[in-house]
Structure formats: C-alpha cells, structure tokens
From TrEMBL:
Residue ranges annotated for the ABC transporter domain, each copy included: 4-253
Listed name of the protein: ABC transporter domain-containing protein
Record carries keyword Transport: yes
Annotated PROSITE patterns: ABC_TRANSPORTER_1, ABC_TRANSPORTER_2
Polar residues: compositionally biased ranges: 276-288
Membrane disposition: Peripheral membrane protein
Location within or outside the cell: Cell membrane
Entry's family note: Belongs to the ABC transporter superfamily.
UniProt keyword annotations, A-Z: ATP-binding, Cell membrane, Membrane, Nucleotide-binding, Transport
C-alpha cells in the first residue's frame, strides 16, 4: 500500500519574469519502508516538488495542480486537512541544520517543542523522550547535548538532531531535502547509514531530494531523474546506475568525481594506468 501517491503534479511559480512551470506533470508513489529519490541538477524542480508536496510554498506565489494523496488526504485539493498532518504523518529533514535551528534556544528546548506539540508530556516525560530520541540517532551523552546551543555542536551532530526532531512525531513519511549536502563525505556516510537503520526499524517511507548520485545510489529503491520540471528517466536504482537510458542521466553519472593520482605517487606506465584508474573509489556524487 502506498504511503504517498502522486499523479500529474504540476507547480507554477509567479516570478518577476512571469509564470514559470517549475514542476510539469510528474507521477510517482512511495510505499512503507521504501526510499524514492528525485535527483537532478540545480533548478531542475526537485526541491520545488518537495516543498509543494509539503504545502510550504506561498499560496500567492505558487499554483499547485494534480493529485498527491498522503495518509488518505489529498495535499493539493485539501490543504487545510493536510496542514493537520504536517508535523505528524509527514516530517521534513531540511538541508542546512544551522539555519533550521534557532541559535538562541538550546537543543533540548527545540527538540522538546517538536515532541510536545499537544502538551501531553510532563517535564520528566519530556526529558526522557528527548534522551531516547537522541540515543536513537546515536548522539552520545544525550543529557549533556540537550543543554547545548546549536553553535556548540558539529554539522553532523546538528543533522542528527534534525532527524530526531523529525522522528519525534512518528511520521509515516520523511521528506529529506539534500540532508547531507553541507557535510563532508565521512559524515555523509554516517547520516545515510543512520537513516537506513531507522527506516529498517520503523518502516518509515523516505522521499530523498538530492543532486548527488552517490547518495541516490546508496539509499534508493527507486530513482526519478528530473530535468526542467519533468522526469526524464525513472527506474530501480540498479537500472538507473548500471543501464542509464538518457544522455542527461549518463552525464550525471559521468560527473561523479573519482580520485586522481596523489601528489608524490609515482607515474604509472600506460599499461597499468587504466587498471589503476578503474580501481579508485568514488568519493562523492554529482555536483551539477
């Protein structure tokens, strides 16, 4: 059964240069426990898709049409009903943790607000739940971290806090908008591993938005390649990565950087060069 079913979704944006169709009739679905990734270069429409599905675009600047049914509610035609689901059935993991969190409030206060939306927790119960969530996202010494301010934590730790805040409402769908783009490669891997571990345990569906084909390859069950507001190619992750059908997807794959020869490394002869080059591991995804 689909957690999210999207059919013919279009989003038109009002700009100073007129109306722009940022998303043009896309369709996809996400099942429980599944990760679906929308990938494309900057300006392709992928983040607009996510913000439109969450109804976070200004009503006077964005016209949304089509259908997008989440938890029995049509996001497009029933925005008021959907507003009650946002922060409950669906949660967002934003891109930049430092700007997403208030710099003048502690981690504990901000996490507590996410947990206690209905005021059902006592002070003791709220502390206990906050510590449980930080433990789930593998933050050490949670009682200590709750007393800190965002600037006192690393980027990777802050991203884990945002994941904890998203999980606080037990969502059926997580929308992750470039959740690792501001992090270095080692920290990226830890965050992605954490998301997959949490998904395996809770069966939450994930909509991943990224420009990074390396990220998409690691976490996706299905990939939709987006260009100029449309899906130019869709398929299972193995199909997209191993047998791309469009030139655009092939260019995204070709843009994945690989390690070259290190400084001080002896120059290999031509017979060994291809083999050595092929053996270098891919470090990161496409930054088109």
């Amino acid at each position: 059964m689909s957690v999210l079913e999207v059919k013919d979704l279009s989003i038109e944006l009002m700009t100073t240069r007129g109306v722009v169709r940022a998303v043009d009739g896309i369709s996809f679905s996400i099942d429980a426990g599944q990760t679906v990734t929308v990938i494309g270069e900057s300006g392709s429409g992928k983040s607009t898709t996510a913000m439109g599905l969450l109804r976070l675009l200004p009503d006077d600047l964005a016209i949304i049409s089509g259908h997008a049914v989440l938890d029995g509610v049509d996001v497009v035609s029933e925005p008021r009903k959907f507003a009650k689901l946002r922060g409950r059935s669906v949660a967002l993991i934003p891109q930049d943790a430092m700007t997403a969190l208030s710099p003048v409030h502690t981690i504990g206060r901000q996490l507590g607000e996410a947990i206690n939306r209905k005021g059902a927790f006592s002070k003791t119960g709220l502390l206990k739940r906050s510590m449980e969530l930080l433990q789930q996202v593998r933050i050490p010494a949670p009682e200590v971290q709750l007393k800190k301010y965002p600037h006192q934590l690393s980027g990777g730790m802050l991203q884990r806090v945002l994941i904890a805040m998203a999980l606080a409402v037990d969502p059926v769908l997580l929308v992750a908008d470039e959740p690792t783009s501001a992090l270095d490669v080692t920290v990226q891997a830890g965050i992605l591993d954490l998301l997959m571990e949490l998904q395996e345990r809770t069966q939450v569906a994930i909509l991943m938005i990224t420009h990074d084909l390396g990220v998409a390859r690691l976490v996706s069950d299905r990939i939709h390649v987006m260009k100029d507001g449309r899906f130019v190619e869709s398929g299972e992750v193995e199909q997209i990565v191993d047998q791309p059908q469009t030139d655009y997807t092939k260019r995204l794959l070709a843009a994945v950087p690989r390690l070259g020869r290190w400084d001080g490394e002896p120059q290999l002869n031509s017979a060994d060069g291809d083999e050595s080059s092929a053996s270098h591991a891919t470090l990161n995804g496409a930054h088109s």
